[in-house]
Specification:
The complex is a heterodimer. By secondary structure, chain A is mainly beta. Chain A has one domain. Chain B folds into four domains: 324 residues, Spore Coat Polysaccharide Biosynthesis Protein SpsA, Chain A; 326 residues, no CATH class; 111 residues, no CATH class; 76 residues, no CATH class. Classes of the chains: A mainly beta, B alpha+beta. β37 of chain A pairs parallel with β18 of chain B, so a sheet runs across the interface.
Chain lengths: 437, 1013
């Protein structure tokens, strides 16, 4: 009996431990909001026709520079653009902008959310150029950006650009770096909600040499994958000529880089001669002819480097008796996301050691379909006609993908990457402690 | 010698108690007096009968006749002086017994000093003949009677000799008759007290000498001064000796001092009287306090008396008044003496036993041991200090503190501690102000601990950062000392008490409190042992004095003002005690015991509430705040860590440095000693600490819920555990030796091992990680300098914290600077609209955020570095914000639109900012409309125009809006009358409680004669 009180207290101790731990459900002081930032689609340079593929007719959007800031439903799955850029509250879907100079060339680019850094590998600033850098400030405050330019000689002077709220600016490439043949442009957003786009259009006199929209990458990397490059053969009479490719590469760092370029094709993966352990000087844009000996088709490349680099592939194309070119740019590893491809029916090219991707198709008539794409090194998937959007799911490891769009006017390319990823932002709380060092 | 003729004049007033001995002493002098006469001033006792019985001629006078007048009467009754003879008057009191050779010694000294006309004996105590009372007297600049002796000085002959003095007491003074008559005798205005100093002063400036002759000894009972008899002289207003003494002291100074020193002297006398009366009030002696004031009043009411007296003295002054300056004690001597007495008192109060241990040991050793002159003196006695547990542990804690505090020398901030205010003035301003410019502004009552810190900062010349820095440095030492005082009650083993107190100083809760800047827990830890000490015997509260009850209440008030949960704890304990009283009183509330107890218990309950009002009333209105300690709200460590006696949170000991607190408490549960009761109580505290730690709370400007920090409860449990362990381990060695191996041996061994491991682990952690605590000296500021320039501008500060992978955003409104001490405690409630605007800002939907912020007068938006790129892009893109700067400190945007502290809206709805006119600083409105004051709404905000108040309403945004009817100048003010009223009441409560809690002074008549002796 003497021990009844202490034993009772010890029992109470156990009860307290149990109760307090039940009560003390992990209380996190932090709360987060998950939002998809709106995406911006490229403005349409004069003379071009533009359309944006959407996944739903109810997708809200507004045109840059319009009087009203209110978002209105698109009402169409292919929203026809005038000259101005379009801001779309896509809620995680990545619309694709399609631009065409009828009968001359086609370009496609992803509509994406504003990022702090955009690298464009492509473009030319010699006498043939009609290319333009298109800057869009989708915010309601002034935006400031720095434009860093590299060419075959090295870096150029950085230019600062200021854009008024809700406006867009077009800058000719010939004014950015006159005479340059190999351009790499880096747009750094200093303030504001700024998006940049690059169109590379060329012509000699009245003769159109083709054009394309160049998709951007966010940052230099030591592994660069360009998954979708069209390898075409032009028949001139009985003679068949393989159309050439040029690898444009920049090592923007402080040290020279050594790279290996692996070609991934349906014929197998290999490193072309001269592309093994190749030295890349720092600060200069190099153009390397890449003419793999293989059958016509699609291929991808994977560049591994000991220094961060940016790279793109310029490929000549020929279709319907018209010459054009296409810029295939780096794609990040494929993640689960949804892309709107209404009216485009692109061909997806996946590269990776073991490709395994589930593709969910949503047709514009409301039907749905699921396809599983599997393969070694490279796999192709042609999106059927009438598909409005594609959702990628159950994706294997380290798979890179791009899309090629072909039309009577030419070829277009876009990487399969989400234009707006889910942004997890902390919900701010009122806390007086912010005012103590 | 033969030429000296001595007439003894004995003044008697109710002196029958001493008279037989006095008469015997006079008559048995070696040098007999030539003539003796007694003057009786209306004695009511048998004095006259005794005198007549001794055949001493008696002059009988009225009871109201003063001492001087009595002497004058006696002198006038004497026969005329014989030429050629030195005639001397020997002034004797009825409570003065001269030694046999007193008169002879006086005359011998005088015989060789012809210039000396006044001589006095060495006065010793009536009861204790070794108690030195006087060897000559003087007067201090403040009017105090100055003997130059230590209190209760033991006469060992150290003052012996013949000394030139300003004066000697009239008790036993031998005065040459011709000079006495020439100077007009004693001043009739000084009927009692200070007539001796005055006369000596006059003798000196007349060119004569005054000496004290220590070969002449007399024993004095000081019956009037010690209030053994009533004072009935005519001029003694209300018959109060002290009143008369103070009045006469001032009189002597004012009539004898040089004219040019009079203004300063008057001021000094006045201020001295006020200070002393306040002191007597605190000592609960209102009568003495009144004496001080009345004494000065009665004197200044009769300036003619002073003028006449000065005129008379001027006539008789032959030499410079400066002649007395060597006899006036320097101020420094008085200060030094007061300081020395205070220190001695404090030391004896704090370390009564240690004090005797230090002082007595050598004495005992010296007296008991035969002195061997061949043995060299021990010159390394300081080493013995390290063999003393108290000193050794104190020294170790000091070393630990020094190393631990290496990053904390300077202005401290961090953890729960906001940046420091520079001076006491700022603290007072913060405390007294009715409106606090924190966030959107608040009219919350400032907690009383701000005033306490302001008072303490006077010790550091008003330097608050120095006070805080010192406080955190000294905390382990204070914890050690206060807990040692308590633990000594449980053991006589000094080693056990010292080491246990050391453990308390480095307990997990103490380490956390210091590292995390939790001033509240530091104060609780420091005062808790004292509180327990003075509440011992609480169960029989009826036996406690009211003084102790109010001391307990005062201490609870102080603790609660830092840590309001102490209110809750005291309410629970008091409730439980009252219930027990009810049961003990046979459930009859009319029983005397219950009544006796309930009054005292309720006094303890309600006094702290009143002492800390109106702050405490605000806490009762929002009881959640009772759980919040002072300073920033920081998370605790959760329930499991709390159960181990570690409150957790930032700056806390890691879990692996497990303290033995819980272990001790569990072992103590099985004890048969009172350790068991203490352990049970402590476990209850620990349980509640754990339980509360499981909950989250927000407040004090932080609205992200934080795990409740239960430092106060854990402090109670920690102290309880240490007390229990001391009781357990006290004399355990003897018990363990006496018994066979049993569970006690194992548990004792385990306890010692666990404690040792904890001590090593905690000290190692303190030396390494612990020194890099959140609290550290810092001169950094959150806001860049250019934003701090606009003092009245509101700046919304957004800051990122947390990990890189999971950053979190917090915001607050800055008012021209960082948050300082006390401001979190008065921070206003969260403003939902501003919070919503900021949230929309962060999730990029806040198109109207800028207009919302502008409406609340927020001029700038500052995102502090490191800046999340996402949020800057969003703010850039949203519109309504214009970048003003981007520096290493962060990015500043100016909020677009009309924004400021006063916004005027005309009848058409046009808004404009009201800014002070550059020249006149006047605020002008241009026509009818409304003025919005961008501060939180309070009914004390007023805008005056042409002397009348404008109508005030509350806007949808919760801001005060005033209707303006015409153009003109306006002025804005916050009416702080209510706050001032509360503070006045608080001061009254505080002073009353302090007076009631302080030890009462004793009137001199209440002191036993033995003590006086």
């Amino acid at each position: 009996m003497k021990l009844s009180r202490p034993l009772g207290l010890i029992a109470a101790l156990g009860a307290v431990v149990l109760a307090t731990n039940l009560i003390h459900s992990t209380v996190s002081g932090e709360k987060f909001s998950l939002t998809y930032p709106p995406v911006v689609c490229s403005p349409v340079p004069s003379g071009l026709t533009g359309a944006v593929s959407l996944s739903s007719t109810k997708m809200p959007l507004r045109v840059i520079g319009s009087k009203s800031l209110a978002l209105k439903a698109a009402k169409k799955l292919r929203y026809t653009q005038r000259d101005s850029a379009v801001v779309i509250d896509a809620q995680g879907v990545t619309p694709v902008s399609f631009q065409v100079r009828l009968g001359k060339w086609v370009g496609t680019s992803l509509c994406s959310a504003s990022t702090a850094s955009q690298w464009f590998v492509g473009g030319i600033a010699d006498v043939t150029t009609q290319g333009k850098l298109l800057l869009v400030n989708s915010g309601l405050s002034t935006a400031v950006a720095d434009i860093e330019i590299w060419n075959e000689s090295g870096p150029e002077l950085t230019r600062a650009v200021t854009l008024k709220a809700d406006s867009q600016v077009t800058i000719g490439l010939d004014s950015l770096s006159p005479g340059s043949r190999e351009l790499v442009i880096h747009v750094i957003t200093r303030s504001g909600r700024l998006s940049a786009f690059l169109s590379d259009e060329r012509g000699r006199g009245l003769k159109a040499l083709g054009g394309d929209l160049i998709n951007s990458t966010e940052a230099p990397a030591k592994i660069v994958n360009i998954p979708a490059i069209p390898h075409l053969v032009r028949s001139v009479g009985n003679r068949k000529t393989t159309l050439s490719h040029t690898l444009r590469i920049l090592n923007p760092g402080e040290f020279d880089a050594r790279i290996d370029v692996k070609v991934i094709s349906t014929d197998g993966s290999f490193i072309p001669v001269g592309f093994e352990n190749k030295s890349i000087a720092r600060g200069k844009v190099l153009a390397l002819k890449l003419n793999p000996n293989m059958a016509a088709g699609k291929f991808g490349i994977s560049i591994s480097s000991d220094q961060p680099i940016v790279a793109g592939i310029y490929s000549d194309t020929y279709a319907y008796n018209k010459s054009d070119f296409i810029w295939s740019t780096a794609a990040p590893a494929l993640t689960e996301f949804k892309i709107a491809v209404a009216g485009l029916s692109p061909q997806f090219i996946f590269t990776g050691e073991s490709v395994d991707v589930t593709i969910n198709l949503a047709y514009s008539n409301g039907k749905r379909g699921v396809q599983r794409v599997r393969g070694q090194d490279i796999a192709l998937f042609q999106v059927p006609e009438g598909v409005a959007s594609v959702t990628f799911s159950q994706i294997g490891r380290e798979i890179y993908a791009g899309a090629l769009v072909s039309s009577k006017s030419g070829y277009g390319y876009f990487p399969l990457a989400s234009g707006s990823s889910l942004a997890k932002s902390s919900i701010p709380t009122s806390n007086i402690r912010v005012l103590t060092p | 010698m033969n030429a000296h003729r001595v007439t003894a004049i004995l003044v008697v007033h109710d002196g029958a108690t001493w008279l037989p001995e006095v008469v015997a002493a006079i008559t048995s002098q070696e040098h007999s007096v030539d003539h003796m006469i007694a003057v009786d001033t209306g004695s009511l006792d048998s004095s006259v009968k005794l005198l007549k019985g001794a055949r001493i001629p008696v002059i009988q006078m009225e009871r109201t006749v003063g001492f001087g007048e009595a002497i004058s009467n006696a002198v006038s009754s004497l026969p005329a002086m014989v030429p050629g003879n030195d005639e001397w008057l020997w002034i004797l009191h009825d409570d003065l017994s001269p030694a046999r050779g007193a008169l002879a010694a006086l005359l011998e000294a005088l015989s060789t000093r012809p210039n000396v006309v006044m001589a006095g004996p060495k006065l010793l105590g009536w009861h204790d003949h070794t108690h030195l009372l006087e060897v000559g007297i003087s007067i201090a600049a403040n009017g105090a009677r100055w003997t130059g002796l230590e209190p209760s000085e033991y006469d060992q002959g150290q003052r012996d000799g013949i000394h030139d003095v300003l004066s000697v007491s009239t008790a036993g003074a031998l005065i040459r008759r011709d000079v006495f008559e020439e100077l007009g005798g004693f001043d009739p205005n000084l009927e009692l007290f200070r007539d001796d100093v005055d006369f000596g002063w006059r003798v000196r400036v007349a060119g004569h000498g005054v000496i004290a002759v220590t070969d002449a000894v007399a024993f004095h009972a000081e019956a009037s001064a010690s209030e053994r008899r009533s004072v009935d002289v005519e001029g003694a207003f209300l018959h109060r000796p002290r009143l008369l003494d103070r009045r006469n002291a001032a009189y002597v100074l004012l009539v004898n001092s040089s004219w040019w020193i009079l203004p300063l002297l008057t001021l000094q006398i006045l201020s001295g009287a006020i200070f002393r009366s306040v002191g007597y009030l605190f000592a609960k002696l209102p009568g003495y306090a009144a004496d001080e004031i009345l004494a000065i009043g009665t004197l200044f009411l009769h300036p003619a008396e002073l003028i006449t007296a000065r005129r008379q003295r001027r006539k008789l002054r032959l030499i410079s008044p400066r002649v007395i300056s060597p006899f006036i004690p320097p101020r420094w001597t008085q200060i030094r003496l007061s300081w020395s007495r205070s220190l001695s008192w404090m030391r004896s109060q704090i370390f009564p036993q240690e004090f005797s241990e230090i002082t007595d040991q050598p004495l005992v050793a010296q007296s008991l041991e035969d002195e061997d002159l061949l043995v060299p003196a021990n010159s390394s006695s300081w080493r013995s200090l390290f063999r003393r547990p108290l000193f050794l542990t104190f020294f170790l804690i000091l070393v630990i503190s020094l190393i631990w505090a290496r990053n904390r020398f300077g202005s401290l901030s961090g953890g729960a501690l906001p940046a420091q205010l520079p001076g006491a003035r700022d603290l007072w301003q913060s405390y007294l102000s009715g409106w606090h410019y924190v966030g959107m502004g608040s009219s919350a009552a400032a907690p009383p601990w701000i005033a306490l810190l302001a008072i303490l900062s006077f010790l550091f010349f008003g330097n608050v950062p120095l006070l805080i820095s010192f406080l955190f440095f000294i905390t382990p030492l204070v914890l050690f000392l206060t807990s040692y005082l308590l633990l000594k009650r449980f053991t006589e083993n000094h080693w056990l008490a010292s080491l246990s107190a050391g453990l308390y100083a480095i307990s997990p809760v103490a380490i956390t409190a210091i590292n995390a800047g939790r001033v509240s827990t530091v104060v609780v830890l420091a005062l808790l042992p004292i509180l327990i000490l003075i509440t011992m015997g609480w169960s029989h509260v009826e036996k406690m004095s009211w003084r102790r009850i109010f001391s307990i209440a005062l201490l609870i008030g102080v603790i609660s003002s830092f840590s309001p949960i102490a209110f809750l704890i005291s309410v629970v304990i008091l409730g439980f005690s009252i219930y027990q009283d009810y049961v003990t009183s046979h459930r009859n509330i009319k029983e005397a015991l219950f009544k006796a107890r309930i009054a005292k218990r309720l006094a303890v309950l309600f006094t702290p509430l009143l002492l800390t009002a109106p702050w405490s009333f605000e806490l009762l209105r929002t009881p959640r705040r009772l759980l919040l300690d002072s300073g920033f709200l920081l998370s605790g460590g959760g329930p499991n860590l709390s159960l181990l006696g570690n409150p957790g949170g930032v700056g806390a000991l890691p879990w692996w440095a497990m303290s033995p607190i819980a272990f001790v408490l569990l072992i103590s549960l099985f004890s048969i000693t009172r350790a068991r009761v203490i352990a049970e109580m402590s476990l209850v505290f620990l349980f509640f600490a754990s339980l509360l730690s499981a909950f989250s709370i927000s407040g004090h400007g932080t609205y992200a819920p934080a795990s409740l920090y239960s430092g106060t409860l854990i402090s109670c449990a920690t102290l309880g555990a240490i007390c229990a362990s001391v009781i357990l381990l006290d004399q355990i060695r003897e018990r363990l030796i006496a018994t066979h191996l049993n569970f006690r041996h194992y548990s004792a061994a385990l306890l010692i091992v666990v404690t040792t491991i904890y001590s090593v682990a905690s000290v190692s952690w303190i030396f390494s990680e612990g020194a890099n605590s959140p609290v550290r000296s810092s001169t950094e500021s959150v806001l860049p300098a250019f934003l701090s320039v606009e003092k009245d501008a509101k700046i919304l500060v957004i800051r990122q914290s947390g990990s890189i992978s999971s950053p979190s955003l917090s915001f607050y409104i800055a008012r021209g600077g960082d948050i300082t001490l006390g401001e979190p405690d008065v921070a206003p409630a969260e403003n939902i609209k501003i919070t919503q605007a900021v949230r929309e800002l962060a999730d990029s939907t806040g198109i109207s955020s800028s207009s919302t912020l502008a409406a609340y007068g927020i001029k700038y938006l500052f995102v502090k570095s490191p800046v999340a790129k996402n949020i800057t892009r969003v703010i850039d893109g949203l519109g309504g914000f214009t970048r003003a700067s981007s520096t290493g400190a962060g990015i500043v945007w100016k909020v677009s639109g009309i924004s400021g502290s006063l916004i005027y809206t005309d009848l058409k709805g046009n808004r404009s900012l009201i800014t002070p006119n550059e020249i006149s600083q006047a605020l002008l409105v241009t026509g009818p409309g409304t003025i919005t004051l961008t501060e939180s709404y309070s009914r004390h905000w007023q805008i005056l125009q042409s002397g009348s108040r404008l109508d005030r309403t509350k806007s949808e945004d919760g801001l005060p809006v005033f209707s303006v009817l015409e153009a003109g100048e306006v002025s804005v003010l916050f009416d702080g009358s209510l706050r001032r009223g509360w503070i006045s009441l608080e001061i009254i409560f505080l002073v009353t409680t302090i007076v009631l809690a302080l030890p009462g002074g004793r009137r001199r008549r209440e002191i036993s004669e033995e003590e006086l002796a």
